[in-house]
Amino acid sequence: MSEQTPNRVEQRGLYFDELQLGATYVHKPGRTLTEADNVAFTTMTMNNQGLHLDAAWASTQPFGKPLVNSLLTLSTMIGQSVGQLTEGTIVGQLGINDVKFPHPMFHGDTLYTETEITALRESKSRPGQGLASMTHTGRNQHGEVVATATRTCLMWTRQAHQDSLEAKGENAHG
Q: Is 118 exposed, middle or buried (0-12, 13-18, 19+ CB in 10 A)?
């Protein structure tokens, strides 16, 4: 028998030149946001809003129960896209705009996210890099839109990233 070298597969996002304008990327699995997640995130970020931490008080408010911190929803929604779109291929996040929370998330709700690529343009000042704008849409387990946000990232092209790694003496393949 001949000895074969197994293929090496490394998870990464897509390079700028692999993104498809108008394509929608569906991110799986979803993430169920628990009371523990909400309390940890809310207290870690020093947000003492009773809507997130005080179940008795929240029960007297219009939704009748605690809400998941909207910034936890936003962070999770963007985080769900990383493995598929930007892991290892982003230079930096340039901005998050048009953030909306049309429906609340509650403890035990599951967040499902998809991302549409809405604009692509090569950087004028950074050869081998490009600006990618994307709109994230998060839905709960009932299909209700709970959050939307537009994000712009500076992304590597495949060749420029490989050239950059080789110039630094790093293995371009991991």
A: middle
Which string of b and e fits 29-62 if b means at least 16 CB within 10 Å? ebbebeeebbeebbeeeeeeeebbbeeeebeeee
User: In the numeric block, which tokens belong to residue 125?
Assistant: 């000042």
Count Cβ atoms within 10 A of the Cβ of residue 13 and give its class: 0-12 exposed, 13-18 middle, 19 or more buried: buried
Distance CA 110, CA 55 (A): 20
> What would the two tokens of residue 128 be?
């081998």
pLDDT tens, position by position, 83-106: 999 999 999 999 999 999 999 999
Q: Is the peptide bond before 29 cis (omega within 30 degrees of 0)?
A: yes
Q: Report yes or no on whether pTM surpasses 0.85.
A: yes
